[in-house]
Every structure is written in structure tokens, then in C-alpha cells.
Amino acid sequence: MRVELTVNGTARSDDVEPRLLLVHYLRERCGLRAANVGCDTTSCGACTVLLDGKSVKSCTVLAVQAAGRSVTTAEGLGTPERLHPVQAAFRAEHGLQCGFCTPGMVMAAVGLLSEHPHPAQLTEAEVREGLEGNFCRCTGYHNIVRAVLSAAAQLDGAAS
Amino acid sequence: MIPAPFEYAAAGSSGEALDLLARYGEDAKLLAGGHSLVPMMKLRLAAPSALVDIGRAADLAGVREDDGELVIGAVTTHAEVAASRLVRSRAPLLAHAAARIGDPQIRHRGTIGGSLAHADPAADLPMALLALDGSVELRSPRGTRVVPGGEFFTGYFETALAPDELLTAVRIPAAAGIAWGYQKFVRRANDWAIVGVAACGGRIALANMGPTPLRATAAERALADGASAAEAAELAADGTEPGEDLHADRDYRRHLARVLTRRALEGQSG
Questions:
Q1: Which of A48, A76, A104 is the last residue of a domain?
Q2: A36-54 pLDDT, tens per residue?
Q3: Can you give the pTM of this predicted structure?
Q4: CA distance to partner chain A, nearest, from residue B103 (Å)
Q5: Partner residue opposite B5 with nearest CB, options A19, A60, A133
Q6: ipTM over 0.95
Q7: CA of A150, closest CA in chain B: separation in Å?
Q8: Closest CA to A127 of A101, A103, A151
Q9: Cβ–Cβ contact A55 with B under 8 A
Q10: Which secondary structure element, helix H or strand E, spans residue B86, and what is its range?
């Protein structure tokens, strides 16, 4: 069936099978490979993208459920020359090792920070809880949390 | 993992959803957030012939107050329930339970109606519905009926819903200012309860202590007769036949039910 949606700001119209998962649509039809298929069971968060600005696990959303909505993947955040503040903070704070969880972690963090009018007020505990849906098997999370707190301070500064 | 093929239709309203359900017949399933159904379809534990998507049915969304009751549309997400000022002030136990489901991404998609209709005895909202003495509104071509939570859950993942019936809303009597407690014992973050207890206004509801969410009736009677929280909690597992799995055997679940009930009755929420 025909599905019309916006992906990273670009309007798209594609014929899809109703059973096509959003993560497969993004990777195979749109050529956007940032969202990874990790556990494939709504647990690990490696496939996290934003759907109308809210973080979701794209392995558990049908592409047809995204019809009429706006999807943002890590490719839609910034460019290598001009990183999104969350991407830049992950690099500056070394918030990754193997990198497999990183696109999902970054999208979950972007979603989390966007839900708070003053992200700089987020505590470390709130950031840890806000990233509960994303697993990292390398870092032990400390640098990821540091990166998100650093991005929160920057984004808050930029907003005010 | 890829679901088996199915037909798909999106309903713009509850009326349209009922028409589509009637057209597709009893092998069709309703899809809201899809966070119980889609994982089951990916594992091929469910293979409905058609999905009727009610996720965009505007008349099924939102929270309002009606004659002292909270009325929560079936497709209201867990995140919306948890953040709702109305729910937080009138039924804080429900807001807390919704905020404890899964993780942020899951709460952005999963819905209150979907969770109740899925009827997992280990889930948060079925237990919360019983603790709050809530009910569900069910609509079919034959009309609308309101079923109390205690009659809605009929078995392991089974409810009183007929194949052509749609859960349209959840009704919760306002419980502002009434003491409550909530306990959920898990080994891993984001997991379902090994045992859960929700207590509010003299009611005690248990998760994962049987094929359906249950009321701890013996403990409730003791409380009503003046027993202390600790005394009543000793009776929390009476009459239950909990299942066994790799997390817990029957005796351990009964032990957890007693400990968690005492904590819930003391107003602790975790």
C-alpha cells in the first residue's frame, strides 16, 4: 500500500507491504543505515528514531503506522562538518566505543532533551533514567551520561 | 523478524473501526501502539489476517473528567497518562504505574487500552485498574457496555472482549487524596513484574500471582477489620496459585506478595 511520510525533512511516497517494519523501511528503502537492528525485540534501543519528535523503537513500529508523520534519524540531525550538539558532545566526551548503540543513544538523548523546557536542569539520575531504553555493552554508560549532560547545558544556553 | 502478511486499514474514528472489524471478521486484530501485538506478530505467536489501526482515531484519545470519574481514551499513550495533570491529581497511582512501564520509547507508543486488552497478568496497568476499582467501556454494533476491571480479565491473556468489540475508554473513580502504594519487583530494568502490588483505598491488587491480575481479598478483609498493614500483608498470598518460571517458584512469589503488600500498604512506591 502507498505510504506518505516525511523522513529527515524530505517528503516521501512509497509502496510498502503493511508488514514492513519502520527500521527496515528506513534502512532498505530510504538507504538510511544509522538506525541499527540490535535485539529486534523492543529492548536494546539501537533502532531508536524520532516519530513526530518523540523517541520510538523503529523495530516495533510498522512503516504504515508512520504514514502522515515525520521521522528523524541520526542522518537528519547534523552533518560531519556541522554536528548536532548531542553528536558533538558524544565525540567530545568519548561517549562511545564500538559505536553500534550510538545512533539510537543519540536519538534517545535528543528526544529526552527536547521534552524538557530547560534541559540544563536535568540531573544525572534523570538522564540515566531517560536513557533506560538504550543498552550499551561497551562503555558502562558513564561517558554517555556525561555527553548528554554536556549537550543539555549547551542546548539550554543556546535556547535562552 | 518479520510478521506474517496481513491486510491493513487505518480507522479515523471508533465507528469506522467497528465497521472495519465487522468487515474483516474475527481473525482481525485491533492495532493501537502495537507494542504488545507487533512483537507477538514478529515472533509469529500471533498471525492476524488483518489489522485495524485505531492509533489515529481522534475520538479514542485524551483524558477528561466525567461526573467524578476520569475517562481515558483507549489510545492515550502511557507517556500521556503519566504526564496528564488530571491523572496525576485525581489518580496518582495510575500516573505512577504508567510511568513505570517499559522505557521512554515504549511509553511513547504503548496505549492504556492496548495494555488492558492484551491482559498480561504481569503488566502494570491491569493491576492498577483493579487497585483503583476502574472499569472499561466496550463498544460493538450491539451498543456500549461498561465492564468492571474485576470482570474484564477472564484468563491468561484473555478478556471479556468479544471479537467485534472495541475497548473505547477506561473509567477510573477519582482517588485524589487517598493513600496509595505501588511495588514492582523486577530483576532487570524495564522488565515485567515478577510480582507487583498496587494498593489504594483499602484495595490490594496483585500482578503475576495467577493467570489474571487479582485482588488480595483476605488481606483486604483483614484491613477492613482493623488489622495493621503488617498483619494484613501476611494474608496477601492466601488463595493464590502463582505460576513458576526461571525467575521465581511458587513459594518465592507468595513471599514476595507478602513483603511487597506490606510495603505498598505503608505507602511506599517503587
A1: A76
A2: 999 999 999 999 999 999 9
A3: 0.96
A4: 5
A5: A19
A6: yes
A7: 21
A8: A151
A9: yes
A10: helix B85-90
